[in-house]
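Might you be able to consider the sequence and fold that I enclose below?
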Amino acid sequence: MLLHLGSGLLGNLLFVLLGRGQPVAAVLGLLLGLIGPWMFLGLRRDRRQRQFLTQLPDTLQLIAGSLQAGHSLPQAIDAVVRDGAPPISTELQRAVVENQLGLPLVSALDGVATRLSSRDFAWVVMAIRIQGEVGGNLAELLGTVSGTLRERERLRRQVQALSAEGRMSGWILGALPVVFATYLPPGLPEPAVHHPGRLGHDRAGRPPPRRRRLLGLPGDQGGGVR
């Protein structure tokens, strides 16, 4: 809570300095300072979920290979925990510990899918549960699921690559109003009418007679430059 309030005050101070004391800049800085920590945590969560989904097909393939070699499902998952990389190794390690404490392995794996909000892993857990109830070759089943998830991940990356330009344009267009509201109002120069003689204008803010004739503007009678 204190960190959240501190980030809000820091954002407020930073935008006040950049906006030269404008009230709009102060309000925007306070809002961004308060929302910033939540955005940061959301980005970290999304990054962890993407890493988990990227590692999932290879992990299922390793589990299937261990099952084909004669290991049980808990032993295969424990091998992945020892040889794997975070975040999937840490999540599966927690599931193994929960199973050792008495929780059924399928329920522990279901908790992993719930914590990461992963529908793909929830489908894997559902396949394991159904196989445990009706029987079948779990190694072959996990290999098939691994191939399906790998193809889905390839299509997901292709869609992200094709839509990258549009998403970047959206971020830029969304940030332009904030930049304009923060910087441009205090940075705009005063009108030339308040500065007689600036850029050759007279006290009424009109350009010189020669320029008025070139622009086709009406001028003073007899006030032209010959």
About this structure: The two ends are 74 Å apart (CA to CA). Confidence is low (pLDDT under 50) at residues 192-198, 221-226. The chain is about 75% helix and 0% strand. Residues 23-68 form the longest helix (46 residues).
